[in-house]
Amino acid sequence: MSQLVLILYFVALGGLALYGLFGLLTFGLYWRHRHATFPTPPFPNDPPSVTVQLPLFNEPFVVERLIHTAVSLHYPAHKLQIQVIDDSTDSTTERAARWVAYYRKRGINISLVHRSQRAGYKAGALAHALPQATGEFIAIFDADFQPKPDFLQQTIPHFATNPALGMVQTRWGHLNDGRSPLTHAQAIALDKHFAMEQTVRHRANLFPKFNGAGGVWRRACLEDAGGWQTDTVCEDMCLSTRAVLRQWECLFLNEVQSPAELPTTISAYKSQQARWSKGSSQCLRKYGRLIATTPHHTLLARFYALISMSAYSTNLLVILLLLLQIPLLLLDFHFSSWMLLFSVAGIGQPLLFVMSQQVLYKDWLWRLRHFPTIVLIAIGLAPSNSRAILQTLFGNRHEFVRTPKQGNRTASPLQELRFDWLLLVEVGLAIYAWIGVILAMQQQNYGPLFFLASCALAYSGMVALNMREWRWHLKQVRRETAISPFP
Predict the structure, then answer these.
(1) How far apart are CA 91 and CA 60, in angstroms?
(2) What share of the chain is helix, strand, coil (3-state, %, to 5)?
(3) What is the C-alpha to C-alpha distance for residues 383 and 315, in angstroms, rounded to an integer?
(4) Which of 20, 160, 366, 390 could lock onto 346 through a cystine, CB 3.0 to 4.6 A?
(5) Parts of the chain belonging to CATH 3.90.550.10
């Protein structure tokens, strides 16, 4: 039994070290390609036709802002079409229809494409609207995005100079990163993904990917790759993987921002990250063999793509590592000096966080004060993300759970909250970690203390945040359903 515990321990530790080394590889590749530039080519005299697609589902707080932003894009009116693609079941449809009618009267080519059922979720909606799109190029913005007026002027010219270019992705900016420590932490995490990981994937041609919004597709590439498919909840990764396998080129423009809203509640952020975990795992199952055996990409590109798609499995390794701590303490297991190598490997990912802030912001040191929050949230999300991965492996039904947006509201959007048994798991993990902390202190075995204390704080904080949101939700429900006893 003790040998099994030790074997599992080294498997978990070795797996996490592997992804730490992957971070160091990313850092090295970034350093190699950091000076590459992609100046915007001259705007063509006869610009191509463009369709801007705005997929929506129950977004009453941001739909009007989104439409106003889309019609403000600088592009020749006779070459621009805007599609408001709506699957909503609430007041969003009425709000969208009102503004679509308003702008159509003013000569803007904008239409509302509404479905009464949500088959295929976002991918199904985009596929449904594509036959009605007239553009040679398709730009996509989710409900919470606010592209700058010159977005198309900075992206479309790149296609004219490279017929093999199938997709352009821009860096996501942040509309509300200063709202709370949660949004600050999310912003740093996304900055790391775009400024470091996406830069490397695109510039080194390591299976670059589309991020679902804030980008433009060449329609010929989209259709050649098989169009939008509905068998994963990460339709963006699914499509871009097929496009790369078909040898289309992709371009990431780190200098062009597409500002978007960050989730403001822990429940919304958990659902978003669980969806990304599940979608990435689905794509790994769907394309893993094709990626590993393709003759058109280097061994490094294939390795990078497979490790990237499997990166969410670190959540399972974190849970396993925590569960092994008390058995190891009871076995009186102590770290040896050579095991510090695992810790050295672990600096890869933190290094990317730091570098992304240094590259993007002048006040990067001040912004990094939220780094401890990132660590605790990452650990706290492990149960939710692990469940999503296990559902991919053992489940057949995968619902696309949207992330609610709040727009300019100062209060978080009222969303339907249902009891999730995962809260009990988080409570159990918090108690387990605190027991481990006490046991380590009693035995004066300080090796695992930092990890145990981090887990104890992370899961205690996750439970506290969830309970606070539940109390706020119940108060809002009572307030909105209260009926005065007086006529």
Answers:
(1) 6
(2) 60, 10, 30
(3) 7
(4) 20
(5) 47-298
Question: Cα–Cα distance between 378 and 188 in angstroms, integer?
Answer: 12
The helix or strand, by DSSP H or E, that contains position 411, with its residue range, turns out to be none
pLDDT at 483 over 60: no
Q: What is the rounded CA–CA span in Å between residue 218 and residue 161?
A: 13
Q: For residue 475, what pLDDT band results from cuts at 50, 70 and 90?
A: confident
Give residues with Cβ within 8 angstroms of 385, minimum separation 6.
273, 274, 277, 312, 315
Pick 47-298's CATH classification: 3.40.190.10, 3.40.50.300, 3.90.550.10, 3.40.50.2000.
3.90.550.10
Q: Token pair of 379, please?
A: 């650990």
Q: Which helix (H) or strand (E) holds 168?
A: strand 165-174
Question: CB-based contacts of 448: which residues, under 8 Å, 6+ apart?
Answer: 325, 328, 329, 335, 436, 440
pLDDT tens by residue, 57-101: 999 999 999 999 999 999 999 999 999 999 999 999 999 999 999
Residue 245's contacts (CB-CB under 8 Å, 6 or more residues apart) are: 225, 287, 290, 291, 294, 296
pTM value?
0.92
| Among the listed residues 122, 120, 314, the one whose alpha carbon sits nearest the alpha carbon of residue 212 | 122
- Nearest-angstrom CA–CA distance, 142 and 103: 20
- In angstroms, rounded to a whole number, what is the distance separating the alpha carbons of residues 96 and 304? 41
Average pLDDT, the chain: 92
Tokens of 81: 């079409």
Tell me the β-bridge partners of 52: 82, 139
Local structure of 278: helix, strand or coil: helix
Contact 424, 462 (CB under 8 A): no
Encode 23-59 in three state secondary structure.
Answer: HHHHHHHHHHHCCCCCCCCCCCCCCCCEEEEEEECCC
What length does the chain have? 487
Which residue type sits at 315? N
Can you read off the two tokens belonging to residue 99? 């503004």
Rg of the chain on CA atoms, in Å: 24
* Residue spans of alpha helices (H) in 361-421: 364-367, 371-380, 382-394
| Single-letter residue type at 234 | C
As a whole number of angstroms, the distance between CA 164 and CA 166 comes to 6
